[in-house]
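Minimal example, chain plus erythose-4-phosphate.
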Amino acid sequence: MLFLLDSANIKELEKAQEIFPLAGVTTNPSIIAKENRNFFDILQDIRAVIGPDRMLHAQVLGETCEDILKDAETIRSRIGGELYIKVPVTIEGYRAMPILKQRGYKVTATAIYTPGQALLAAQWGVDFTAPYVNRIDNISGMGVTVVKMITDLFSIHHLSTRVLAASFKNLHQVNEISLAGCQAITVGPDILWKIAEHTLTDMSIHQFQSDWKSVYGDGKFVYNL
Ligand code: E4P
């Protein structure tokens, strides 16, 4: 299962990329707006940090098929490398998906709340579908169940589209989703660090250090015994 970072903050990205095995970065208009600077500068900076081979998912803003296509073309002309155009599963978004695929784009169908939406997008041959786990949970839905249904549907119908689960607010959601069989998840920096760290790990290490130092002394490691 691939881990992506759901952030457009360059400092967070640099810090996370150094430590975690990130397969790429996802953005959406809200995440971009939070940075409050030029859209293309942000995407180019992300590309510079992650290099050409890691995935960068960037979302269109157009509300009609024509505008979606123009947005996609503009993004592709400015941002190189492994680029995925995120297209919401609106009626106009569904219209745009097969055209984008015919034109050679990699496409991520986004803002997915139901298995049916994912199935329709997958049949247009999109590369990823992005169901919104926490947002589904927030409307008394079952985010994990929806993701599991989507991954099962793709498998039953032999669809090559992958599932990129998005929208997480806690580790329970991440753990459950990891068992749901999706191929990728994207999480914000806060969740990523929470996955990695644990207070009891720190306490264990503290105890090891203290026991060691009581015998071998401060500043003594294996290499300078
Ligand atoms: C992916 O990029 C999605 O847009 C994102 O994960 C949504 O997350 P949120 O529900 O935390 O805003």
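Strands lie at 2-6, 22-26, 55-59, 83-88, 106-112, 128-131, 162-165, 184-187. The longest helix spans residues 199-216.
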